[in-house]
Amino acid sequence: MPRPYQPSLLRLLHGATALLVPLAWITGLLVYSSHDGRFGRLPFTIPGEWIDIHGTVGVLLWPIALLFGLYALTAGRARLHQPANVMALVALVLAVGSGKMMDEDWLREGQFDHLFYGVHLLAWLLIALAIAMHVGSVLRRGGLPLARSMASLQLRSGDLPGNWLDQIRRSLKIGR
Ligand code: HEM
Ligand code: HEM
Fold it and tell me: Tens digits of per-residue pLDDT, 142-166?
């Protein structure tokens, strides 16, 4: 079987997303445990302005997630035939979209009943499930070689940053 190869723009956007999502997940958990905790708290506290730290991770994540989403819907469309890839994308959009609708003062003021806060908490659970299924599906379909192909630094000719616009343009033409 040929070694799997992932386009460089996909690797860049997917890699940045896959670094920031776990950071958002963990800092979100620390926000929850220190400010809400209705369903339980972590058995320890780590001092820190977790709402601000999480907000900063979120500010870095949302533009990257937006570009990644646009990539997945255009040049990456064929990969969305995999249901687990679609689920990872939907969970990402839900987490980032509801995060954008959050107000940083709600939790500080004890306001836990906002709709978007409920959606944001649900998205936190869903994204963990979706990513577990996504990684499971990747490993089932292509094992470690497919998983590793997403972290590889190898570049083929015709897949350099100068080719990215062309790749998107071509995917739009084929779609019509
Ligand atoms: C993987 C899970 C999560 C992701 C991807 C995520 C993502 C985001 C994003 C993109 C923002 C918007 C930042 C901005 O542009 O201002 C945000 C805001 C926020 N999120 Fe999350 N979040 C997650 C989990 C959580 C959890 C579990 C909590 C805890 C209750 C939480 C609490 C908040 C709060 C309080 C804000 C407002 C912060 C601010 O605007 O400074 N998030 N989140
Ligand atoms: C942490 C958050 C992650 C999110 C939101 C995410 C999301 C996605 C999405 C939406 C796609 C389809 C892209 C397209 O249509 O072009 C994809 C593909 C892929 N992801 Fe992830 N992913 C994440 C983590 C991971 C991790 C940790 C691995 C390593 C095992 C991984 C390996 C892959 C691979 C190999 C593909 C290409 C699969 C294929 O050809 O079907 N992803 N990912």
Answer: 999 999 999 999 999 999 999 999 9
Pocket of ligand 2 (CB under 6 A): 10, 14, 17-18, 21, 72, 76, 79-80, 82, 85, 88-89, 92, 131, 134-135, 138, 146-147, 149-150
Question: Is the pLDDT reported for residue 127 higher than 90?
Answer: yes
pLDDT band at 82; cut points 50, 70, 90? very high
3-class SS at 175? helix
Q: Is 156 exposed, middle or buried (0-12, 13-18, 19+ CB in 10 A)?
A: exposed
> Side-chain half-sphere of 142: how many Cα atoms within 13 Å?
16
What's the 34 CA to ligand 2 centre distance in angstroms?
31
SS3 track for 59-93: HHHHHHHHHHHHHHHCCCHHHHHCHHHHHHHHHHH
